[in-house]
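Sequence only, no structure available. Ideas?
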Amino acid sequence: MACLAGALLVAGSAFGVDTGFYLGGSIGPSNEKYDASTFNTNVGNRSTGFQIGAGYRPVPGFAGELDEVRFGRVSAGLNRADTDAIMLSGLVFLPIHVVNLYGRLALMDWHTYGRCNCDPALLAPLPFHRTGASFAYGIGAGTDVYYSYSGNLGVRLEFEKFDVAHANKMTLASIGLTWSFL
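Reply:
I predicted one. C-alpha cells follow.
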C-alpha cells in the first residue's frame, strides 16, 4: 500500500496537475432516438442538452463527479419526451503535455417525462413517466486556460453515450468550462 501511495505522489508531481474540488458546466447537441415501445413509432431528433456538476480530484490521474444532465426535448407530432439524469462518474486522466485526455464511466438515475398519442381513438395524448438506472460512458479532452491565485479555469470537449432503456440512442457532445479551486 505504501508503494501505491508513493507512486501516486510521484505521478502527481509528474502530471503537474492540481488536485482538489472543481465545478463545471457544458452545453452541446443532444441526439435522442426513442424506440417504438415508447411512442408506437420511432421518434428522434437533435436538441440542445447541458450538464452541470461538481467533482473532486484526489490524485492527478483520477476524479469523481456528480452531474445533472438534461437532454432537451424530442418531439414528433403530438408525441414528446424530456429526459434528464443524475450521474455519479469516475474519470481516469491521461495527461499529454498541456492536454488531459480522459475516459468516463458513470452510473446514472434517469427520468423521462412525456406525452404520447399512442392510441388514435383518444382525442388527447397520454402523459407517461419512465425511470431507471443504467450506465453512461464517454471520452474527452481538457486543458487549463487561465491560472490565478484562487483557482484555474479550464475548457473541456466531451462525447458521452447514455444507456437509457427505452431509447435506441442517447448521446451528448459538449463543450464546457471548469473552475478548479486551489
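The longest helix spans residues 2-15.
Hope that gets you unstuck.
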